[in-house]
Amino acid sequence: MGRGIHAQLDPLIAKPLQKGGKPILIVGDALNEHYEEGAQPILTLLVDRISQMPRLKISITAHPEPHIQAILDQYRGYKQFHMQGIEQSVVEGDIRQYLKFRLSEEEVTKAFLRLRPPP
């Protein structure tokens, strides 16, 4: 059986952060897609211990689910950014630019180096 998250936090995150160096970023992506009991202990632990780890930076992406918001509300030192506030035209422009780049002949050629050119 694996060790609990409390036991893993110190050797994997807290102790390495005690050494000098650059900040470390942890990204929790799409936490709302995890069942409540999965995201809640991790978020609670990080919120409880983040003040003891000043080099630690955390970025969380999630829909504003009540169980996630309730945990984050306990920690006042965070900034929220709501994607819903971005104009649709800006979002569409960013997507268009990304696709134009990724589907450019140069990028497609790099991605498929092993393919032979058509006869």
Care to describe what's here?
This protein is mainly alpha-helical. It has two domains: 5-84, no CATH class; 86-119. 48% of the residues lie in helices and 8% in strands. The chain has five helices and two strands, in the order αβαβααα. It has helices at 5-18, 36-49, 66-72, 88-102, 105-111, and strands spanning 24-28, 56-60. It has a two-stranded parallel sheet. α2 (36-49) packs parallel to α3 (66-72). The longest helix has 15 residues, at 88-102. The chain is extended.
User: Helix count, per DSSP?
Assistant: 5
The portion of residues assigned to helices is 40-55%
| Helix/strand/pairing category | mainly alpha
Gyration radius, in Å: 20 Å
Shape: extended
Mean pLDDT across all residues, rounded? Answer: 80
What is the N-to-C succession of helices and strands?
A: HEHEHHH
Task: Compute the number of strand runs.
Answer: 2
Termini Cα gap: 56 Å
Largest sheet at a glance? 2 strands, parallel
Instruction: Trace the largest sheet across and list its strands.
Output: 1-2
Number of domains: 2
Q: What fraction strand?
A: 5-15%
Sequence stretches where pLDDT stays below 50 over 5 or more residues: none
